[in-house]
Amino acid sequence: MLPRAAVHAASGHRLGAAHPRQEGPADLRLVPPALAAWATAALVLDVPTGWAVGVVTGALLLAGAALLGPVRERPHATAAAALFLCVAASAASAALHGADLRRGPVPELAGRYTTVTADVEVTADPRLTRPRVRGNRAVPPTVLIEADVRRVSEAAGTTVATRTPVLVLVDVDVDVGDGDEQSRAQPPPARWLNLLPTTRLRVTARLSPPRERGDRIAAVLRVRAGRQPPDVLAEPSTAQRLAGRLRAGLREATEDLSADARALLPGLVVGDTSRVTPELEEAFKETDLTHTLAVSGANFTIVLALLLGPPGLAQRSERRGLAPRLGLHLRTTALLGGLLALAFVVVCRPDPSVLRAAACGSVALLALATGRRRSLLPALATAVLLLVLDDPWLARSYGFLLSVLATGALLTIAPRWSAALRRRRVPPRLAEALAAAGAAQALCAPVVVVLSQRVSLVGVPCNLLAEFAVAPATVLGFAALATAPVAMPLAESLAWCGGWPAGWIAGIARTGAALPGAGVDWPGSWAGAALLALVTVAMLAAGRRLLRHPWWCGVCALLLILVVVQPPPLARVIKGWPPSGWRMVMCDVGQGDALVLAAGEGTAVVVDAGPDPALIDHCLRSLGVSRIPLVLLTHFHADHVAGLPGVLRGRSVGAIETTALEEPADQAEFVRRQAAAGRIPLRHAAAGEQRRSGPLSWQVVWPPPSRPAITAPGTEGGPNDASVTLLVRTAGLRLLLLGDLEPPAQRELARAPAAAGLSGVDVLKVAHHGSAHQDFAFLRRVAPRLALISCGADNTYGHPAPGTVAALRARGATVLRTDRDGAVAVAGTGKELRVAGD
């Protein structure tokens, strides 16, 4: 047997010797114990303590029985004993972590919804929720902070020391921007966002139980901070302050990049996604590129490859990268790699994929330090086992599951697929890229569909196109991170270079997501995941046969391209949507309003934008609308205007017109910001105004310029009764669009000079989602042939009201509603009115 020094010398570390490939089957001995520990942790975390003790005892007895078995079965007995010991250790660790959530005063106080004063220690970077719409109001963002309660006291009680994990929700009431500034002059909400892990705070908050059983938090603390800054008791640790300065330096270095690169580069490098807009995030989800949106294990692999060489050579002698070129000794290389792993976890934060990558890399580095080469599969199994034993909550983390599945696919399936492709004369680099993207997609898709309820059809090609940009963006981003504290001009130059590949990745995501057939809806349950897995296996089996017939491969590829691109003429023939000669479409945007009026080929007037940018954008893309001469927002409630960014996305917009009553003020300001960002003129509509666009003409019939008392701020009707109401004429059809007018305004409108033209209209957009607040005399006078109601499925408001629907049908109207009929298109002429659904 060679001495250790001979092993090091034979490795050729200093001389860059050849790379003999390790032969033999993969070492799978650690895989069953790792999987058993993983499953045990997931099951035991929230079981009663007695059950957990039983599991530990039973596993130890089985391990002892295996070791005391016959000598001739010793190898199998040892493997069985190792498995049961791992089960026992995992059950014990999970039981202890689960008990942490049940001990101490915090869970009991949370059950009584008690208001307390607590000292908490921040354990992760604060993050900001996305704005959302609830009813007709926009819910302001909330700062989420993971923390441990260290001391807690009731208003009239004693102070108790504890250590209990909680989630702190901080309600803020001002715009926080990007949170880039670190000075004391920054607004209080930004100071909440810029808190670093290990910071100690004192908060007065109301405790409540977690929403779901099985969460890794014992309670939720809701802090009504408003404009108050956090009460800091102790500053963060030195390591976290250093990490914070590095992250802040990277944000500063990327400040002047394009919007997408400025948002994406910090996310790729350190997981800072505070600048990522909702539409960019949605694009990454649609194209299965979410793993590149934030820091992941791949980032550590890239950085480690600079030191050790390409990961693909890990099964050979480890003699690549910077280390041999600098003449570093074997153990020195391993020590530097370990320090790099520690710094990576501190700066990037211990997310599941970061921990998995760091642990796997550390195991490989340990093997390197001892001179023993190991395959990556045992290293992955060891990493999983150690991480689950240390933090059993990872066993229930979707991110951890996806990270392990993707890595396992790259280590087991991808090499075989790559070899098969090379045998069919596919260039080696392309074969490796295709195999890696396809293997990761095949194994991760069933889990992704549980989270997104959607299967991406462009995931593999988008990942292939983005893969070539990930490494340069990551390397340049880390270089900018390291140089920012000492040489900001150099860091800005490196960030500028890294912005090009980062912008390329964002462009791939946006382009892929914009394709009409980018994905298909799928049942978002584990049964749906199992079905997708079966479909994937069947497609792979069919694909192996298709590879023998190039012509059939070409036909299938062409069909897939047609399904994804969906050329409008072909889509109209196959789907029947949009119907030929459509005049108006009521989009299905959930509990909100959004209508599209045809004004020529690819041109339309949009009336209201709904509550969700993604839904209205999807509707406009399905209709092929690229030019919008006018966006008319009937009033400023969030369920009519919050989707405005989706209307403006990638389209030419001539003007935005709104009601004169700018209430609610926050949503009016939101519309002004969107118009200013797009350099779009913003004006008010008033009764008597008449306009035309192509074959479309319309007249504003409400509100009058005098703004009567019923539309004044603070009155019962308020913004609803200030809704801009249109009488539209197109192809001999008359359409009345009422916005959210309530009975007082409907009665006033019936007495207005324009009322004579409202009788017997062809189509009525029923006011206020078909609520019971209608003037039925006005509905009888309007007497539409077709009544359209936009409302969300299973909404909590009871829309549409049965009485309203009955009153419309009593006058002979056909009633269609988006919650049941989906998007509705009106086509034909005044004599031949036709209706089609999506």
The mean pLDDT is 82
Instruction: Supply the helix-strand structural class.
Output: alpha/beta
Percent helix? 40-55%
Tell me what portion of residues adopts beta-strand conformation. Answer: 15-25%
Please state how the strands of the largest beta sheet are arranged side by side: 19-18-16-14-13-12-27-28
Work out the radius of gyration.
Answer: 31 Å
Q: How many helices in DSSP terms?
A: 31
Largest sheet data:
8 strands, mixed
The oligomerization state is single chain
Number of strands: 28
* Unreliable spans: 1-23, 174-187, 311-318
Shape: globular
- Through-space gap between termini: 74 Å
Write the layout of secondary structure elements.
Elements lengths: L3 H7 L20 H14 L4 H19 L6 H27 L4 H7 L3 E8 L4 E2 L3 E3 L2 E3 L2 E13 L4 E14 L15 H6 L6 E9 L10 E8 L4 E4 L3 H16 L5 H12 L7 H9 L3 H4 L3 H12 L13 H5 L3 H19 L3 H18 L6 H15 L7 H26 L4 H25 L1 E3 L2 H25 L4 H27 L4 E3 L4 H21 L3 H16 L2 H8 L6 E5 L8 E4 L5 E4 L5 H10 L4 E2 L2 E3 L4 H4 L2 H5 L3 E2 L2 E3 L6 H13 L4 E3 L5 E4 L2 E7 L15 H4 L3 E6 L2 E5 L5 H8 L12 E3 L10 H7 L3 E4 L12 H9 L3 E4 H4 L2 E5 L4 E5 L1
Parallel strand pairs: 6-8, 14-16, 15-17, 16-18, 18-19, 23-24, 24-25, 25-26
Antiparallel strand pairs: 1-5, 1-7, 2-5, 3-4, 5-6, 7-8, 7-9, 10-11, 12-13, 12-27, 13-14, 20-21, 21-22, 22-23, 27-28
Helix pairs in contact: 2-4, 2-15, 3-4, 4-15, 7-18, 7-19, 8-18, 8-19, 9-19, 11-13, 11-14, 13-14, 14-15, 15-16, 16-17, 17-18, 17-20, 18-19
